[in-house]
Amino acid sequence: VTQLSPLENYKVISGPIVMVVMDGLGLGEDGEQNGVYAAHTPTLDGLFQEKLFTSLKAHGTAVGLPSDADMGNSEVGHNALGAGRIFVQGAKLIDEALSRGDVFSGAAWQKIVECGESAGTVHFIGLVSDGNVHSNISQLFQLLDACAEAGIERVRVHALLDGRDVAQKSALDYIRPLEERLRALSVSGRDYRIASGGGRMVTTMDRYKADWSVVERGWRAHVLGEGRFFSSASEAVETFYREDSTMTDQYMAAFVVVEGETPVGTIEDGDAVVCFNFRGDRAIEISRAFDEEVFQEFDRVRRPDVFYAGIMEYDGDAHIPRNYLVEPPLIDATLGDYLCASGVTSYAISETQKFGHMTYFWNGNKSGYIDEGLELYEEVLSDRVTFDQRPWMKAAEITDKVIEQIEAGERKFIRLNYPNADMVGHTGVPLAVEIAVEAVDLCLARLLPAVEKAGGIVVISADHGNADCMWTEKGGKRLPMVAHTLNPVPCIIKDFSGQNDFVLTDLAERGLANVAATLCLLLGFNPPTDYEPSLLKLK
Ligand code: 3PG
Ligand code: CO
């Protein structure tokens, strides 16, 4: 990309531009079910009265998802924030590649079919739900049908249970139809079954190296056949519900399906393995475990010689995994690319759980620095707990570090993510959600004066909703809602420099993709012409 051109009539300001992403904090209906409304938030309440306050669409087509029935998520949200345009995202790309047949025309699918032809088993590992955040069960069904059509005789599914992007205890709504489908396909000499699984937060789907033991547990269940034995996946889920009435899907222990005492589908030399999650953050670690010759993260005990493919490429910098079925969205010319080309110093920070959101997702699913001379990325280590236990998370530590950077005065563009409203929102514990939102509010109360003192500008927004709906009501009963919402998110721009007179532009619709151009403007540049328009203009 080329250097950005300076904005005419812009008066240079002394302080930084600080972008705050309040992960999972949307604008929902007033009421006790809304954790943002219910929390005590004097700072946010004041910000919502600001002159430059607006709301942004953060779901569906505004972030490249198939339809407006799709809630937003952190990947698509941060992609849009960091790249200033709307890209067709994984969920839709895979749908299209399946219906057009592109999935089956490449070299990777050919390898999978060949493996089946030489008596290998084809394994599918992934999240079994229709959350459409990491995966979609309808895509798995199409892959299974294609296996049957290609004459593959033996297929095994390693089913990760969701309960986080969908209802907390909905596993059987997916597992039963999956078992049914596999049974129906198991004719004419075919043998298709679920072989293992487990709750996504304790099995396989760790992210950003927060806790490799999660991946190890998955490896042991899927590859080695170690875990609690059951005769079927639905029996596993039913048993877990029965033994502990508070158990929800995302935390269920790893399980292995056995016949007698023998696991029905360990992963062996000569097999093929497909990870059918399209989103990368939680698929990278298990992919590395299969792909890497030398591997220190845990003891694999046995590394089968398999053909491993992701349904997509998960990291465009590190090229993880080595093989994949569908090209990922090409998210190029990001704000980070432009700012580096223009010599702007920057700083990005969050705690582990969202660290990659502010770096990898923000930079278009590339994990490295763009220009290490100009950028600094910092990670505060997250606790390894379910975050209802510590709803304040590391918000204060993140704030400390940001204030340090503001005071040091060397970084022109600072971006940070407070994970609280999202990570606690996913636990479904109302009191904890309120405390999470209050923790963010308290930190903003410390952050704002620091930006003011430096004479900077702060932009406060979110990537999608979550805490803004903690439950829905049906027949007088509260049904916990742990997933993201379809609500818009706030966007507040508070200019403490007073150097320039910014006003909101008239736009038919405002969405997350309008933020990058806005940041260009606040930094004194003309936004790239192909970016979605800025939310502001100079008066
Ligand atoms: C997760 O991975 O935790 C959820 O599926 C989505 O949450 P995020 O999009 O907010 O990271
Ligand atoms: Co979330």
Query: In the CATH scheme, what's the topology name of the largest domain?
Result: Alkaline Phosphatase, subunit A
Share of residues in helices: 25-40%
Taken as a percent bin, the fraction of beta residues is 15-25%
Number of strands: 20
Query: How would a textbook summarize the main sheet?
Result: 9 strands, mixed
Count, helices: 16
Second rung of CATH, namely the architecture of the largest domain: 3-Layer(aba) Sandwich
- CATH top level of the largest domain is Alpha Beta
**CATH-assigned homologous superfamily of the largest domain:** Alkaline Phosphatase, subunit A
Question: Which kinds of small molecule does this entry bind, naming each only once?
Answer: 3-phosphoglyceric acid, cobalt (II) ion
Uncertain runs with pLDDT below 50, 5 residues or more? Answer: none
- Chain-averaged pLDDT: 98
Distance between the termini: 29 Å
Backbone shape: globular
Radius of gyration based on Cα positions: 23 Å
Family: Belongs to the BPG-independent phosphoglycerate mutase family.
Catalytic activity: (2R)-2-phosphoglycerate = (2R)-3-phosphoglycerate
Function: Catalyzes the interconversion of 2-phosphoglycerate and 3-phosphoglycerate.
Pfam families: iPGM_N, Metalloenzyme
Produce a short descriptive summary.
This protein has 539 residues and is α/β, with parallel strands linked by helices.
Write the topology of this structure.
Layout: E1 17-22, H1 35-38, H2 42-47, E2 53-56, H3 74-83, H4 90-100, H5 107-117, E3 122-127, H6 137-149, E4 154-161, H7 171-185, E5 191-199, H8 212-224, E6 228-230, H9 233-243, E7 255-259, E8 262-263, E9 272-275, H10 284-291, E10 307-312, E11 324-326, H11 335-341, E12 346-351, H12 352-361, E13 375-380, H13 395-408, E14 413-418, H14 420-425, H15 430-454, E15 457-461, E16 471-474, E17 477-480, E18 489-495, E19 502-504, H16 515-522, E20 536-538
Parallel strand pairs: 1-14, 1-15, 3-4, 3-9, 4-5, 6-7, 9-10, 10-11, 12-13, 12-14
Antiparallel strand pairs: 2-18, 5-7, 7-8, 15-18, 16-17, 19-20
Helix pairs in contact: 6-7, 7-9, 13-15
The structure holds 3-phosphoglyceric acid and cobalt (II) ion.
